Amino acid sequence: MSEALKPVHAELVPAPPGSGRLPFALPDPGTEPLLPAPRTLRLEALQHIAIRVADLPAAERFYREFFGMEVVWRVRRAGQGWEYLPADFDWGTALRTGIVPEYVLLRNGPLQLLLQFAGRGTVFVEPRLVHLSLRVAPETLLELRAEVLVRGYAVAESGEHSFVFRDPFGLTWHVTDLPASEPPH
Questions:
Q1: The pLDDT value given to residue 23
Q2: Is the N or C terminus of the chain more exposed, i.e. has fewer CB atoms within 10 Å?
Q3: What CA–CA distance (Å, rounded) separates 104 from 116?
Q4: Is 9 exposed, middle or buried (0-12, 13-18, 19+ CB in 10 A)?
Q5: What's the Cα-to-Cα distance from 74 to each of 32, 103, 132, 157, rounded to whole Å?
Q6: Where are the domains of the chain?
Q7: Contact 142/177 with Cβ under 8 angstroms?
Q8: Residue 134's pLDDT is what?
Q9: Phi–psi pair at 67, nearest 5 degrees
Q10: How far apart are CA 97 and CA 124, in angstroms?
């Protein structure tokens, strides 16, 4: 038979300030000031501005004529991926055949507009601005994603190279470390 174990009643006694006996080599607030960690975010570019439109051909025509923008691509969903429509795409033929893009990316210099087709006759009850897209350095992507999670902001999408979240003021942000050559997710 073994002897009955006696409970040990011990109290945790904190190390006295200034003793330098804090775990994990943490600075002792009694002797060293605690400073916030320096933060360096590398924002590389405004990736694009995405807006929802009810009349995609008219919106494309307007932005091409008004801002002198060129079409980068037109895409539509094809199963789980995207189908790029040909460079000689014709809106008249598209409307007759039903093969129409869901997104059109336009560019003039640093300005890129991503037009998202909301559907003909759409009545907008929410903002037409879909999101603002930022291209950042890979390490900044990780830091911002962590910050969004710590702050508890709503995350709509999250992937290896990008995520989408809504800020406290209602703006939706798409943050990525990839160049702008791919259609939206």
A1: 63
A2: N
A3: 7
A4: exposed
A5: 58, 6, 19, 22
A6: 46-120, 128-180
A7: no
A8: 86
A9: -100, 0
A10: 26
d(CA 129, CA 147): 24
Sign of CA dihedral 119, 124, 129, 130: negative
- What residue type is 9 in one-letter code? H
- Torsion, CA 43, CA 45, CA 50, CA 55, rounded to 10: 170
Nearest Cα neighbor of 133 from 43, 54, 39, 72 is: 43
Q: What is the 3-state secondary structure (H, E, C) of 136-185?
A: ECHHHHHHHHHHHHHHCCCEEEECCCEEEEECCCCCEEEEECCCCCCCCC
Pair 56, 104: CB distance under 8 Å: yes
Architecture of domain 46-120: 2-Layer Sandwich (3.30)
Return the CATH fold of 128-180. Answer: 2,3-Dihydroxybiphenyl 1,2-Dioxygenase; domain 1 (3.10.180)
Q: pLDDT by residue for the chain (185 residues), tens digit each?
A: 556 655 555 555 565 666 666 666 666 666 656 666 777 888 888 888 888 888 899 889 988 987 888 999 999 999 999 999 998 999 999 889 989 999 999 998 888 999 999 887 777 777 678 888 888 899 999 989 998 999 899 999 999 999 999 887 677 889 999 886 566 55
Q: Which residue has the tokens 């598209």?
A: 94
| pLDDT value for 45 | 83
